[in-house]
Amino acid sequence: xxxMRAMMDFLLPEARALDLAGPLSDYAARxxxxxxxxxxxxxxxxxxxxxDDLMLGRVTYPGLFFQLDAxxxxxxxxxxxxxxxxxxxxxxxxxxxxxxxxxxxWIENPLFEQIARSLIPGEISIYRAVLFNKAASGGTPLPWHxxxxxxxxxxxxxELQIWTALDDAPVDGGCVEVLEGSHRDGLAxxxxxxxxxxxxxxADADARRVALPARAxxxxxxxxxxWHCSAVNRSGHPRRAFTVCYMSRxxxxxxxxxxxxxxxxxx
Length: 267
Fold this sequence. Notes:
By secondary structure, this protein is of the alpha+beta class. It has helices at 2-7, 21-30, 41-55, 101-107, 110-119, 197-202, 205-208; strands at 32-37, 65-68, 91-95, 124-134, 142-146, 160-165, 176-178, 193-194, 210-212, 218-223, 228-230, 239-248, 264-265. It contains 7 helices and 13 strands. The longest helix has 15 residues, at 41-55.
């Protein structure tokens, strides 16, 4: 077991001694923070390969969530509820990646544990662990949105997600774009999710957006209420990123039409 864990140690040595005072201050004030590069080459190679294996069906786990890109390229046309539709590198989203030991090793790395414990009191679980993929052919644009609200079906909104670039995510590759400080105003609507067009226009969001290009192995802290979006990938190369939402283990699912969700404890 110890040898296996050593093989899955994907954290750069210098990241273990990272001074978190600056990033945590930025996260509180701006709603996001850069950690710099924290994943080593072995981790990038392993998680890129595993991402492709999952999309192509070479590695499978029961209960994984898959969503293909819309053929039209329009967010409004994204397919829902269809699950795995055969081998393709054009899946937009893969969820429940905590089922995979390689991704779980990254979820539980000591740097992320230190960050999560500094922001979340008590025991910790994850709401979701997701690969967001923009294929080399373009992918689907993601409009302004927030990750919370009644749409998420929880008794409290999580606040912390940590996003890691598995490939370079340049400006023309569909990098994350944010409206700095927007998290301080809470939810734009009780439902959460997409920001209504009139709210985005009133905030002059498109003119005020801040692009956050990242190199492979870099990580970002993102507050769930921060307005964020991304464009299509025009770089000609895949843009894969892995994001994990951490929350208090006391969080409960409120849905009633089906059995309430349970959440994976970490650390």
